[in-house]
Design goal:
This protein is of the alpha/beta class. It is 35% helix and 21% strand. The two termini are 56 Å apart. The chain binds adenosine-5'-diphosphate and zinc ion (2 copies).
Amino acid sequence: MSASLLYAEVGLPIPLEGRFTYEVPEELVPYLIVGSRVIVPFGKGRRVGIVFAIHAVKPVGFEVKRIVSLPDDRPLVRSEHVRFWAWLSDYYMCTEGEVLKAALPANLLQMETADKPYWYALRTQRIYWSKYLQENPLALNERLLKLEKAKKQLALLRGFMDLAGTPGVGCCNRMDLLSLPHANASLLKALIEKGFLREESEELPSGTLSVDDSLLAVLTPEQETALTEIREVFKHKESCLLHGYTASGKTELYMHLIMKCIQSGRNALFLVPEIALTKQLAQRLERVFGACLRVYHSDVSLSERLRLWRELSKGDQAYVVLGARSSIFLPFPHLGLVVVDEEHDSSYKQQDPAPRYNARNAVMVLASFFKAKVLLGTATPSIEAYSNCLMKKSGLVELFSRHMGYGLPEVRVINTANLRKQKRMKSLFSPELLQVSQAAIDQGEQVLFFQNRRGYAPMVTCAVCGWVPRCTNCDVSMTYHKAKDHLRCHYCGYEIPLPDRCPVCAAEATRWGGYGTERIEEDVQKLFPDARIVRMDTDTVQKKDASQRLLSRFEQGDSDILIGTQMVTKGLDFQNVRVVGVLNADLMLNFPDFRAHERAFQMLSQVAGRSGRREKSGLVLLQTTQPDHPVLKQVLQHNYKAFFSEEVQLRQLFSYPPYTRIIYVYVRHLDASKARALALRFAQQASSYFGAQMLGPDQAPIGRLNQWYQQFMMFKIPVEESFMRAKKRLMRIRTLCLEDRTGKNARIHFDVDPV
Ligand code: ADP
Ligand code: ZN
Ligand code: ZN
């Protein structure tokens, strides 16, 4: 047989566009497949890459180099994952290298370990006391004398003692030991050679774990019906939306489905928006799935990450992985079911760095490669997910009865415009809110004051009638720019001077900047001098487990009043909270973003749906200057369908999703005027093709980020038009702009389906 040569397209973890083609040496042909790790020559050195495709077409125009070696005896991941990564790079307009960096544990792509099979890089190495010291710990003291001169080795040994505990017994992870300050591999090697320590790789148990379905709750008739409906949907469709109130038992249904999936030997992925705030959920799953449960997110230690990679790659045991968005990159060998809980949550979108993916959407593609089913669950569906149901792309199952004893709270709307006119507001607090809060505290119950974090946006509103200036082109609120004293739409750049008087009620226009939680805390302290107060927002909680700690202290009754941002709606078990006060619902309704109403409906419904989950029903007070705002009515009536149909009409009128797909183009430069000039150049090139589908360029909502000035443009591509063609066009314009003299030292990136 005349050997026709084969070529491999290799993805490398570098930010350059495109793949790199190499010749496959004949002796590797039988072993090399899509998903294999390879070592290839690159520039003057070598690199580790992943095979994305294999073909027989000789590339022309350059000298093709050969693959150097194949370190592993089996592919790193299945071809489904490679296909998925390629799709992510295409769809989200970033390089495959950027996807690889996000997807793979770093040490799999480093040359230092690349000569060993990936099992080696993935295995967990543990360090123990040497056999001798294990049997004879007292000998340690006399042996230590030998180390007197070797100060660094001695220090490492002390570090080991801190990690492992009592001399003779205990052990630690090699990686944890080596991450101590001043530790390194040669010091460790010396301690092993001198008979102090011993190294062993941890063996994984072979797949013998089983699950027990008698641990599942007995479903109520309504839940049973919903479960049957979901199974029915899955016979014909790949995905299903479960629309059900908070506490209707959605999680119980997920667990029933996951049980079946694991029993059939396939893995299940349970996605949640923010893992640090889901300790209760993890405990609940652990009670049922025990040793089959794995928890995964970007904060788990590298050694745990590698362990999970190895467990999944081994492939002889089905797991349920409870994870944040990054778990869509795990190497599941067989995926049977994906649950996306709180599917509407914007934390599923990665903002920075690339790939700027939305895990909720991307996981559907991954699941389709595995023929796995996807269940989206929420009390407040995203507009996108719900319209997919109406278009029959996805099934819809509803569950509106709440589990026994759970009543919906009473929700009242308070008109702060009237109260302000009568001078009865005390800072942000209405008399009614003060009164019911004080009464609750007097009875030893708890109170939550809720202020949207995004309230810092510099907006203008009439304090008397609640009028808010809106852009005539974009249907979003306009932002106040102090320097020029004018109002501006940050989508299209439309500007108007700040009016002297409110055009509706003729009151003198009042500026209203953000009213942050810090200032609220001061006010609350004055208004409730005897109450114990905690504040929780991004300033007070830099660390995620710190927020969990603050919340659980509040839950245990350590304080009377919690002042929080939207963050608390996700993590808090509201059982003991009697009163929830939404201080200013207007901030949400008027946020300058086309999703403002959607977010407001979701957030307010979540708050309203969570308080008073037990015997006593809760009380929610919504303070607003717009008591007749349709969104507030829809929240009060728990009427999602009314909200949806009104919202999609506006979306259609102003060409927003689901009628268009949106791409943001960001132009960044360290020099403000150069960023502006390049953005204008980009826009000029794009306008002939995109016309009115392009808005901007304008300063991005975050005008300067880590020293980089940011300009941005918005492109709205109608769903009937080819999204791929629009993307290709934008990529070409980017290349032109960056190649030009004006593009020197600039960066241009895309954000597809931004949230
Ligand atoms: P959701 O996920 O819709 O918010 P959950 O599944 O968390 O609802 O249910 C709310 C509460 O009711 C949980 O404490 C759950 O254990 C309990 N619950 C729901 N359904 C049942 C059931 N069939 N049997 C026993 N407890 C249930
Ligand atoms: Zn007014
Ligand atoms: Zn506009």
